[in-house]
Specification:
single chain, alpha/beta, Rossmann fold, 2 domains, seven-stranded parallel β-sheet, 45% helix, globular
């Protein structure tokens, strides 16, 4: 089975590489080619592995942040290794000292994963959310590592595609020793995919426990006045910014003190967004520019400040949801007591979006007209705006506890 998987992966590796080069261009230098030897199990001098480490594999920044409370609890008691797919996840892990070793994950060929395991000799492999990499899992089990999948989720898209090759994925997931699913629906999907159900629990979503509120800020330092009303478009995607900016410009005619922050999902798109603003006649400034005082719209071109922008904003639109990208995490703005708006495409965060919407902490819109109407309502009615934000925060508080439940599972595996 693993030989067949390696062969298929090799056949597809060249077209995948070509796709990365053409699709992501300059971004591929940091997302894939930065520290490229690590992806082949080649490590520089100065990395000193210690047998028995806990190996956490996180796809990107969102998964790293989700397990941050777990890592802080485990550090000092155990040696911890983090591997990531993306530069942003790696950079955040390094800046916040989340592990003893922080690396890119090896390519999923079993012989490359074997080099990694032979070098680091970890005790267990802990995968986050949907990181079901057959090479990692099969090779880990071959080396007698315990394997756990925590905060496990299967979106509609993922489940429907996995089901097409159920005979294969059933073998993959049944090589996992314990699954901590973040919702009842995710647990049932994993069982329907073929997991035996012998070691699976619904533990809740770690992201409710991982919210870190900002430690103070000054609106003036970002070019805004204290009495400005700020709309934040968080983690916006290509195709959304034009809609959001057009809606904001229309609302600006009615609400003169309305300001805008756009924090794109990929900051290298900030110049592209500035052209949209310029074409619409909107005064803008980049986060990194020195002169911001006259700008109506702040375009974020820096990493790691989204929590601050959640805190200083009054209304938050969650991106990736007006275009079919699956949406982004609505929990973080909700934890900051902000009314949350998102579009129709929230399939990657179905349970989070549903519980916020059902309990009055969020508003779902279908298009630009509904987006404009709902933002106008929140601006015009301060009481409604505040109560929606309070409900959002209450929902987040009620959902906490996944961290302690997941820690119990990890401790039972490694002890």
């Amino acid at each position: 089975m693993i030989f067949l998987y390696n062969s298929i992966l090799f056949l597809f590796s060249i077209p995948i590489l070509v796709f990365i080069l053409f699709r992501y261009g300059k971004r591929s230098k940091t997302e894939f080619f930065y520290k490229l030897p690590e992806r082949f199990g080649i490590y520089k001098r100065g990395i000193y592995p210690e047998k028995g480490s806990l190996w956490f594999h996180c796809a990107s920044l969102g998964e790293v942040k989700a397990v941050e409370p777990l890592l802080r609890n485990l550090r000092g008691k155990h040696k911890v290794i983090i591997t990531t797919m993306t530069f942003a996840g790696r950079k955040y892990s390094e800046e916040n000292d989340l592990a003893d070793s922080i690396l890119y994950v090896p390519l999923d060929f079993s012989f490359i994963v074997q080099k990694y395991i032979s070098f680091f000799r970890p005790k267990c492999l802990i995968l986050i959310e949907t990181e079901l990499w057959p090479g990692l899992i099969f090779t880990a089990k071959k080396n007698n590592l315990k394997v756990a999948l925590i905060n496990a989720r299967l979106s509609d898209f993922s489940f429907n595609h996995y089901v097409l090759l159920r005979f294969f994925w059933q073998r993959v997931i049944n090589s996992i020793d314990f699954i901590a699913a973040r919702s009842r629906m995710d647990m049932e999907r994993l069982i329907n995919l073929g997991y035996s159900g012998r070691s699976i629990r619904e533990t809740g979503n770690l992201k409710y426990d991982s919210i870190s509120l900002s430690d103070g800020f000054s609106r003036e330092g970002f070019g805004f006045k204290e009495n400005d009303l700020i709309l934040l478009a968080a983690s916006s995607r290509n195709g959304e910014e034009g809609i959001i900016l057009s809606a904001w410009k229309e609302l600006k005619k009615k609400h003169n003190g309305l300001k805008m922050i756009i924090a794109p999902r990929h900051i290298e798109r900030s110049r592209e967004i500035s052209k949209l603003a310029k074409n619409l006649g909107i005064e803008y400034a980049f986060r990194t520019s020195k002169q911001k005082q006259c700008a109506d719209c702040l375009i974020v071109d820096t990493f790691g400040e989204l929590q601050r922008f959640y805190e200083m904003s009054d209304i938050v639109f969650v991106g990736g949801s007006l275009v079919n990208k699956g949406g982004q995490n609505p929990i973080e703005p909700a934890a900051h007591s902000k009314p949350v708006i998102f579009g129709p495409y929230m399939q990657n965060f179905l349970s989070e979006a549903a519980i916020l919407k059902e309990n009055g902490g969020s508003i779902q819109v279908r298009d630009k007209d509904e987006l404009t109407t709902e933002i106008d309502r929140l601006i015009s009615d301060a009481g409604y705006r505040k109560s929606t934000g309070v409900k959002a925060r209450e929902i987040v508080e009620k959902q906490k506890g996944a961290c302690n439940r997941t820690l119990e599972i990890i401790n039972s595996i490694i002890n």
